[in-house]
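Weekly structure sync, notes
Attendees: PL (lead), two postdocs, one rotation student
Agenda item 3: pending single-chain targets
PL asked that the sequence for the first pending target be pasted directly into the notes so everyone works from the same version. It is reproduced below exactly as submitted, 343 residues in total.
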Amino acid sequence: MKAVVIHAAKDLRIEERDAEKPGPGQVEIEIEAGGICGSDLHYYNHGGFGTVRIREPMILGHEVAGTVKALGQEVSRLAVGDRVAVSPSRPCNACDYCLKGQQNHCMNMRFYGSAMPMPHIQGAFRKHLVAQQWQCHKIAAGVSINEAAMAEPFAVTLHAVARAGSLIGKRVLVTGCGPIGVLAIVAARVHGAREIVATDVMDAVLEKAFDMGADRVVNVASDPGELAAYSANKGYFDVQFEASGNESAVRAGLEVLKPRATLIQLGLGGDVSIPQNMVVAKEIEMKGTFRFHDEFGLAVDLINQRRVDLRPLLSAIYPIENAVQAFEAATDRSRSMKVHLSF
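Predicted structure, written out during the meeting:
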């Protein structure tokens, strides 16, 4: 079968790999759609992120959906022909964190397309994928395979919302309007946010943020004063979802968060400096958010029930043979929100 394999920065190849056969409790899925994620782009453009580096060839990808083609023994909840979104999260369910219900912190996690361990965990950008039946969530009739492949990044933002607590009646700031930032807008709206303001430095992505549910968008590069106005009376926002990984966005958010507000850090970046006096004086709660677990099923349910419409996020679909062009397009924020591969 064909697979999308990264060897080093800017060294992406389409290679032939042996297909696997499903074992007990497993299914074989013919992958049809795969979304290029920010981590995939880090591997492609930089050979890794932070201290995580590519040390051996690795199949990329973890945002996938397809059709069940074969069943292993003891599979009861799926049938050949079922269309499914596949959760890439494969915790051991035996370590201390899993037993505490914190599977996203599993000590033995096998998350598709990850160079964190060695040997690397091979990803899901391949023609055929064998997965556990519990990873697979059925797609409703009328839901496209590309919508289903967006369940994974949507689950990331649903977990972020869970970390923030109740959003009912809250005023929310979203900084950084890439795919995760825009999906955070969708997740916050579903969970009862009263008002959502989104910021970025590019008008093109801000237009998409507005279309996807933000009440107001602010270009902090061309109009920095518009956001600063929210700092009056010690701040305006109850919750900030910081999706840029940029120090200036964190600092700007702390200025406009009201006392006892919550900052949820979604974006990955390097070391940042924060004004500790402001965090202390305002009693700001700063929380990280990492991946997801149960939220994947919720993401699929919300998509299946048409309670959210993620279709406007899809910028382009490239055949697997044009994977390099797809990754280059996904890197260009001025013209791409979410780029998919077709298998």
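Discussion points:
- The radius of gyration is 20 Å.
- The chain has two domains: 2-150+310-342, 157-288.
Action: rotation student to compare against the earlier draft before next sync.
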